[in-house]
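Long-time lurker, first post. I've been practising inverse folding by hand and with some scripts of my own, and I keep getting stuck on stretches where the structure tokens seem ambiguous. Below is the full token string for one chain I'm working on. Before anyone asks, I'm not after the true native sequence, just a reasonable design that respects the backbone. If someone could post their per-position residues I'd love to compare against what I wrote down in my notebook.
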């Protein structure tokens, strides 16, 4: 009887497993819902380096013209306006992880394939890492200094013009777990107003349901919103909520908590949670518009490409090792030393909201 098998590092197996790993890992992430190749995407994917050499991608922002113009037969020559542009660079780098079996006798004792479980384990690991890249970047989580967790680029803290702190405070660490310092819909309103009046304004994302912003909040902030029984708080939002994307098939609605003031709210436990001087936990939510983040890949990687997939045999071919890697990067957009399309909202978690340990 003829059988078809693929040995270690067989070309067919490498291509099949690496592509499947890349696609399935990305499919599991929150970040993938907001990725796209055009400028209307919350996270715009750049493929400049996917077919050529280099480790740096430069993006350019052209500011709107502000001149008055010339009426009638007035002289235009000499009254032209210069274009104003700003650039932002982000890096890509290689990141790899691997799994290694204990040996053939270990594999003999278990009823599953080490090779298959290694792929599943690496798939889960990459999904978690991609979301960590995305959330740490857009929230400006500079407390995490290991760039393996921040998209191979350093995370930059939000600038003061793009930051709102509850209760009118000027620093996050001064917040305490009082009702006035907790997350409320008032902070959403403040963020929307700021987004519409900043220069340049933060452009919302165009969807079938209209122009929308996307906001990510911590689980504890979601808890505090739901427990707020005041008028025009969470109960009122739920009366008109789209819950889970019934308004539109656009992925930014999928899994959403609800909609308020043109903002689609999502919950993420990967947002930064900090400590105040009084011992309270501080959650940092973030509002995003179009092009809030940029994502890039190197050669042989990408959303529809593949990761590196390498299998090695060790100890006289007794142990199987499997590694998976990607050349890529993620970064919050910053032009002219200012955040471009994000606004953070910092609020104290209530004493009743349980904050998980180990979150930066």
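-- Answer (accepted) --
I ran through it position by position. Result:
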């Amino acid at each position: 009887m003829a059988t078809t098998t693929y040995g270690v590092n067989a070309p067919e197996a490498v291509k099949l497993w690496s592509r499947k790993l890349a696609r399935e890992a990305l499919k599991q992430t929150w970040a993938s819902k907001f990725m796209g190749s055009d400028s209307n995407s919350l996270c715009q994917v750049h493929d400049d380096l996917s077919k050529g050499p280099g480790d740096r991608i430069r993006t350019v922002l052209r500011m709107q013209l502000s001149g008055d113009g010339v009426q009638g037969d007035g002289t235009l020559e000499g009254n032209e306006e210069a274009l104003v542009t700003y650039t932002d660079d982000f890096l890509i780098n290689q990141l790899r992880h691997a799994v290694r079996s204990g040996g053939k006798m270990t594999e003999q004792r278990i009823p599953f394939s080490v090779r298959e479980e290694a792929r599943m384990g690496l798939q889960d690991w990459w999904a978690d890492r991609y979301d960590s890249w995305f959330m740490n970047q857009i929230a400006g989580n500079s407390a995490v200094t290991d760039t393996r967790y921040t998209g191979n680029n350093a995370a930059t803290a939000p600038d003061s013009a793009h930051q709102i702190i509850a209760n009118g405070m000027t620093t996050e660490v001064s917040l305490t777990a009082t009702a006035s310092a907790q997350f409320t819909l008032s902070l959403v309103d403040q963020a929307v107003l700021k987004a519409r009046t900043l220069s340049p304004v933060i452009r919302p994302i165009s969807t079938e349901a209209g122009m929308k912003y996307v906001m990510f909040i911590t689980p504890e902030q979601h808890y505090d919103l739901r427990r707020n029984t005041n008028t025009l708080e969470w109960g009122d939002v739920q009366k008109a909520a789209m819950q889970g994307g019934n308004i539109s098939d656009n992925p930014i609605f999928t899994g959403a908590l609800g909609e308020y003031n043109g903002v689609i709210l999502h919950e993420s436990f990967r947002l930064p949670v900090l400590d105040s001087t009084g011992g309270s936990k501080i959650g940092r939510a973030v509002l995003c518009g179009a092009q809030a983040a940029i994502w890039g890949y190197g050669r042989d990687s990408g959303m529809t490409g593949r990761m590196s997939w390498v299998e090695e045999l060790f100890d006289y071919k007794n142990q199987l090792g499997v590694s998976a890697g990607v050349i890529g990067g993620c970064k919050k957009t910053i032009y002219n030393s200012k955040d471009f399309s994000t606004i953070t909202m910092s609020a104290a978690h209530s004493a009743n909201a349980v904050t998980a340990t180990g979150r930066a």
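A couple of notes from the structure itself: Residues 1-6 have pLDDT under 50 and may be disordered. The chain has two domains: 11-38+45-62+85-148+299-332, 157-292+336-348. Happy to go over any region you disagree with.
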